[in-house]
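ugh finaly. both done.
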Amino acid sequence: MSSITIITIAALACVAAAADFQGQKLSWKEDDGLEVKIIRPISEDKCAIKSQAGDVVEQYYKLSDKDGKEIGSNFGKKPYTFTLGANQVIPGMDRAMTGMCIGEKRKVVIPGALGFGTSGRERDNIEADQVLYYTVQLVDLFRPVPGASWKEDDGLEIEVTHKIEDDKCKKSAAGDFIHQQYTLHLADGTFVDSSWSRNEPFKFKLGAKQVIAGMDRAMTGMCEGEKRKVVIPPALGYGTDGRPPQIPGNAYLHFDIELEKLVKKDEL
């Protein structure tokens, strides 16, 4: 048997191994055009947890066009953080990052309808209905522990999506300095704004009227590290005038918030 034949057989063996890594499916294409290929699988014995909706994930990504030209990347930089399945990223990315092990890397092809749609994204020169070519890696994930929920007499709704045990709780009060992460949607799901997209928390003094009344109240009594879903009625938000052009009058504001860091007033 020639050396060329031996090399060919070895190469075919590698291909067969790549197609079936410990019984895992390594590539697939879904009916709506989403394509996923796992290029760095993680063995089952090293995969303690797989990503699912509600997890807070840390992601490395590289976005390219159809010719392989890089549009943007954060590999080697600070990971991008978002809550999976919470409409904080494009629909195709939410789905592509589901079911991943920490350390896993994938190549993903996202059709325009699951990407930036007919609007595109001007700041990155992404055209309407453009197909997106991503390489993504799950750096880490955090799975929340849900807590209580309640609705107050004036319509403020609060749901604790990740609670902190009492013996570990550093609790916020008026006069404290808040480092807050948030995502804001309207009642119909329209995205308005997010601190996560800037990788920079919003900072303010609690109870000092530096934010809308509903947010001052929603973040009072929170533990450092706690997460909440909050619905703020118009009277506690931007009222009848709204905040044009993104927030119309009489809008109910749907927030996902996290008290990332708390500096007590006696620590200032």
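ok and the 2nd:
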Amino acid sequence: MDITQYIRDIKDFPKEGVVFKDITPLLLSPTATRQVVKEFILMLKDQKIDKVVGMESRGFFFATLLAQELNAGFIPVRKPNKLPHTKIQEKYELEYGFDTLEMHSDAIAPGDKILIHDDVLATGGTAEAVCKLVERLGGEIVQLNFLMELGFLNGRNKLRSYDVRSLVTY
């Protein structure tokens, strides 16, 4: 199945000059969604996963499905002041400034095998920040996987020491 047929381009969103990759058509198709989950699972090659970390907000869609399929816990990583319990945070650079991500401080036990998931790998700043959060709590990153990768932004360069996989590269 060619999942790119379920990803549409939205020009000038969220600002002029940007072509946004909209995955809502993919989410509308149970068949395509199941296929994407199946492909993500195949990329893991039977590696043990204790927890799946999903990045706000579009990363939550498939991260929760992957956690269920893997019989693993799900950990949300969110923007500041969205998580209710004690948390750790990491500041990171975006294409257009800085931002901060947070994770509950009790979400990962030392030695937990972690899968990190997001919808898109762009510059790699968000994923790099999440890796730092996971490792600060003692988690062992097994893989980072992404639905899409914007290869021209070279996000993999920030993640060289990890197993990084994408289903589609633009």
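summary for the 2nd one i guess: Strands lie at 8-11, 19-22, 51-55, 73-77, 87-94, 97-104, 113-121, 140-149, 164-169.
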